[in-house]
Amino acid sequence: MVAAAKYGLLIYFIFLLVVQMDIGVADNGDFSDYMTWFVSKPVGFEADAPPPHTPAWTRRFFWYYLPYWEASPPRSPTFFSSAPLLWLPGWILNKIFYSSQIIYLPVMTFPFRLALVVLLWGLLNGVEKALGTGWKGLLGMATLGLPAVLMLSDTHHIAFMNSFYREYPAFLALLGVLGAVGWVRRRPTPLRFLGLTLAVTLLGAIRPSYAVWALLVVPWVYPAWRRSRYRGWTAVLYVTCIPLTVWGVWTSYPAPLKGLYRYSSLFDGALFFSRRPDVHLRRLRMESAAVCVGHVFPPFPDYARCWPALWPRLKFAYTLGVYLREPQAFLRAWSHAATCLRRWHVRYGIHRPDDPSVGRRSPVLRLWSGWTRRLYPSGLGLLGLLGFYGWLFSIHRRSSDPWVASLSDLGLLIVAGVVTDVTVTLLGNGRTELSRTLFLSRTLLDMATILAFHVAATGRRVPSLLARLRSWGRVGRPTWEAGREL
Question: Cβ-count burial of 475 within 10 angstroms (0-12 exposed, 13-18 middle, 19+ buried)?
């Protein structure tokens, strides 16, 4: 039965990938920052950016997923990111088997789908090996394998695969980081430490804010590092390679783009959630900028007085200063981000312009996002749920079952990753594009939910706690009844 469930889940997952092979996410204008490594413009357009408010512009941006792009020799991108390195195998595959002039995104992202199939196959085999072929193995398939299939194939998750956004490459790089952490903890060899360093460097080079994972993984790998005979050079490599790479990526960003991040984090983040923005603006000597609070992109009447005029004066320290002086504003920001995570959906179009299913919903392909929208609490209640997950993983990390213990350790790291990623996103980007920039946070939240469900179902601590509560109730009830008779 376990083998049948394993193969059935794998076949169902492949079917869902094939059915949604031609679903993607529309461009919001960010593709041009780094797609120049491979393409110049979509097929059928005279220019990459048509004039605004024209039919061509409507087809090009926000509303429709465009699968066909004109290949071009590599040109200098707006800034450096390691995301194109993960698209490179698919680009080679497209050139060999499809066309050297046209890039078809489903072909280019085929290695991503293959990676997901391999990941799921390894996960299902791990469940079978750890829990056996009896009822416990079936329970593992139902509590870990099936939710993983639904999460990884959900339309709101998989649509980001067929795009030139950096979110999906970051997800795959993060899986590499989590896998490297597990390998290092199992046996701290120099090669595995090198693999961890490369994985974290790749993730941090996709987007500088992801470099925080270089610090997050330290408590999990430090005990293994202490046991290693190669502590010296592995530590030097880790603390030099990652910061230098991330610093190089950040310095490649144009000054106005850095200013946009600072502006959005302050005016569309900290000041928007503040109850007294005028006080903070007076302290920063920007009283006239009150009209900019809550606005980033045009059209709005005072746009010329806002980002174009203010960005050279701004620092991320201003955002941090507002939150430190008014902690309630940060809690409101976190509550807003948590609500976005609960109501997760792709904000832009996901279908081709000629797709007859444009505007139609497919509940079967969105089961996971539909269920979790009802499961996850709104606002700061999500922090309480993450705290519960953390407690659950903490009481199981010393389990005598190595499978449960290892998953609990991984779950604690993932919970820490959710909280950290949301916090860093709010500090670095404010409310802007949260439906996209929180993609990694939402994916980590789903992973934590699946692991918590599986650990609670297959671990022994929760049943033993429930048994104690029942025994306490049985012991207490006669005493109470006896007292009532007296």
Answer: exposed
